Amino acid sequence: MEAFEFNSHPARVIFGSGTIAKLPQELERLDKSKPIILSTPNQVSQAENVGRILGGRFASIFREAEMHTPFGVTERARAVAAMTGADSIVSIGGGSTIGLGKAISIRTGLPHIAIPTSYAGSEVTPILGETKNGIKETTSDPKIRPAVVIYDVDLTLTLPVSLTATSGINAIAHAVEALYAWNGNPIINLYAQEGIRAIASALPKLMADPQNKDARASTLYGAWLCGTCLGAAGMSLHHKLCHTLGGSFDLPHAETHTIMLPHALAYNAPKVPTAMRILADVIPESDGDAVHGLNVLLIKLGVKRGLRDLGMQEQDVDRAADLAVSKPYWNPRAIDRDAMRLLLRRAWAGDVAR
Ligand code: NAD
After folding, report:
1. ipTM confidence
2. Residue with CA at minimum distance from ligand 1 atom 40
3. Is the pLDDT of residue 11 over 90?
């Protein structure tokens, strides 16, 4: 076994069904009583329910969270928090809402309780991606991580089926890249394997029955483990490409991850044989080939396969390839513009990755 470093980040996590009822106790533990509650416009009713659970003891509800955490939205939310005397933050929603909670928390020092309702995994990472003038910038700081995470399986029952599929694949992508990260280690590999196994076996069941609570619990548990991988290991090609596509072309996060993952994995495969073996073991129906297993899973989930299906224009492929090589980063296989253009063109057209 090679030498490695492992940084464990203590986090308070509550997991189960009906766990949102524990929110008042969790605020009390933090000695706080007047949170600003954050949501997207789509989840206002869940935010209002949080207000009811708190018996009306909250500062305000801010319902304008947006994907990719635009600076302007954060400034508005911060002003509302200050104006209404908020002493803490409760975010209820997917990665966008939790991202807004992180952005306010790191600026103000207010403690943040995250209640995730998708599988993006942001709640357990020290990472914040923010968008200004069409460019997404990422910051990493342990203080960005929420103080408490409440996973309540019941809240995921309303996640639309298509987002259930793509958000689950988004989670798997974190674990995939942790398995070949430059700073990976055997402990994170355990999280990654368990996380992928839990999600890949449960997602097809959710396509048939979105209300299957066991499968929902398994997927949320897997998302937590995969999110931990994202927070603990350095990400490479796949995440960098998705970051560019999301931030500069405004493509939806989970759907973009879902389209790009088999292409990025196929590209890196020749340089990461150990990770490929592990993946082939944990992705069902791989027959020894993880890219094949992933393609089978995506077919079962009935997800979109081409960036053009998300509205990306063909002429943007060139600009995306330029951006993809504009800032060097570590990847197991060397990257050049021609290779990136080819990969992005194939992903744009929806070709099957091989
Ligand atoms: P999202 O948060 O934008 O959610 C998509 C839509 O689904 C929203 O309208 C949301 O309100 C709705 N939704 C979420 N859960 C629901 C539920 N249970 N029921 C009904 N509707 C629900 O999408 P996402 O994929 O969860 O997150 C994407 C964002 O998170 C991106 O901005 C991405 O950059 C960020 N992210 C950050 C990290 C990190 O570590 N910093 C990790 C992953 C994702």
Report:
1. 0.99
2. 122
3. no
